[in-house]
Design a protein that fits this description.
437 residues; 77% helix; globular
């Protein structure tokens, strides 16, 4: 275990911590998955459900995971070990969310490699060399079709992570996240000047209340709220472990939820009106990012330039999320085996490359990501909720979350966290396994 905060590392400021958490939350999923879900489940009504779940339940989850990490000054394995009398059992259970983060990181790095290739392709012109974007993507997403781009994306993250918490993760996110928002605002301005976007804007702003009768829309909105905030008992716990005791966790959780939701909303307002303008289905799913949107950019003036801005902004968001996912197993190696940060980062990078190159095929990475996101990640989120709110208990939780706060949490928070949030986290796991998410 770490004996010295200088060895362990910590965020240099509250704003740096929040930006890093936003970077974890605003990833590729917010660019293609969120607009896809919005398009699939009624536009404005889905947005209402999503924001309600994010503010009411997502914030509770963030507060819990931040506090779990800070009170134990370690990630999920060490935190869970401290929660159980049998520390080996606790560490074993805590390894589940850690392996969930590693599993998602392995699959996610493949997709980041695709985004990197699209970014370069929008510069060298290869992306727009012909109109067959499906073929362009199918070549990239074939067996060993993106090895070099895949490895480069991991190496970029390795370099950032070797820099440590404040000089690596925090510094990178302070560049990537502002640039993401700036570039997407530029894209939004451009999209709003496109012809025929009225229906797209209407779709996002005028609720179709009949969607409320669709129970799957509620379930998907709930799952998206958890997904968008990276609630998995892993990365946010680790980031919380790097917090000083004078940081107001509740305020930080609220700010993280608000700004990451604004990022998701910004993505929706760029993507949905753009695809409506060119009669492309807003619920196209994964092909939306790699096939449908390049077709949109192909048809607008200065499209190659705006394609570059779009892919670059997605790349910033993707790397910010990937370094959070990688940090969880990196922290576990450091903490459990007392090795240097550099060695831990290199080991995780090698593991990711060794496994990831064999799932670069779009179908294989889809199967990999489905397994991890359906079974392991929701299990980690559920376990984290149970550990913090039941096993450690509300008394110990309150003692730790109150550090850095000027006033107490309302008593109603206990019921919301211990019963509603925990039950919902169990429900998400069940719905995920049943294929409802």
């Amino acid at each position: 275990m770490y004996k010295d905060k200088k060895i362990r590392g910590h965020f240099s400021s509250n704003i740096g911590f929040i930006i890093a958490c936003i970077g974890s939350a605003v990833g590729i999923g917010n660019v293609w998955l969120f607009p896809w879900r919005v398009g699939q489940f009624g536009g404005a009504v889905f947005l209402i459900l999503y924001f309600a779940f994010t503010i009411i339940l997502g914030v509770v989850g963030l507060i819990g995971e931040f506090t779990l990490g800070r009170m134990n000054k370690t990630g999920p394995i060490g935190s869970f070990a401290n929660a159980f009398k049998n520390k080996k059992l606790g560490a074993f259970i805590g390894s589940i969310p850690m392996f969930g983060a590693l599993g998602i990181a392995i699959g996610y790095s493949v997709v980041v490699g695709w985004v990197l290739r699209y970014t370069i392709g929008s510069i060298d012109g290869s992306l727009f060399a012909n109109d067959n974007f499906a073929e362009y993507f199918s070549i990239l997403a074939s067996d060993f079709g993106s090895v070099s781009w895949h490895i480069i994306s991991i190496l970029i993250c390795v370099i950032i992570l070797v820099g440590g918490i404040s000089k690596g993760i925090e510094r990178a996110n302070k560049i990537f996240m502002p640039m993401f928002y700036i570039l997407f605002i530029i894209l939004l301005i451009r999209v709003l000047t496109l012809p025929n976007i009225k229906e797209g804007i209407k779709y996002l702003l005028v609720p179709n209340w009949s969607v409320l009768y669709d129970t799957k829309a509620w379930a998907i909105a709930l799952g998206q709220a958890f997904f968008s905030l990276s609630l998995a008992g892993s990365g946010m716990v680790v980031y919380g472990s790097y917090l000083d005791n004078n940081i107001n966790i509740v305020k930080s959780a609220i700010q993280t939820a608000i700004y990451s939701s604004m990022g998701a909303l910004l993505c929706a307002f760029v993507v949905i009106p753009a695809v409506f303008a060119f009669n492309i289905s807003p619920n196209a799913g994964p092909p939306l990012l790699f096939i449908s949107l390049p077709l949109v950019f192909k048809q607008i003036p200065f499209g190659e330039f705006f394609a570059f801005l779009f892919n670059l902004s997605v790349l910033f968001a993707a790397i910010s999320s990937l370094i959070n996912l990688m940090e969880c197993p990196v922290e576990a190696l450091q903490d459990r085996f007392n090795i240097s940060r550099k060695t831990a980062v290199i080991i995780i990078g090698i593991i990711m490359i060794a496994v990831g190159v064999f799932i670069e095929n779009g179908e294989k990475v889809g199967i990999w990501m489905d397994f991890v996101s359906i079974y392991i990640v929701p299990t980690g989120a559920m376990l984290s909720a149970i550990v913090i709110y039941w096993i450690f208990g509300m008394k110990k939780f309150r003692e730790n979350v109150q550090l850095g706060m000027n006033k107490e949490l309302p008593k109603s928070f206990d019921f919301l966290a211990k019963y509603i949030f925990v039950i919902v986290s169990i429900l998400i796991l069940i719905l995920s396994i049943m294929g409802r998410l």
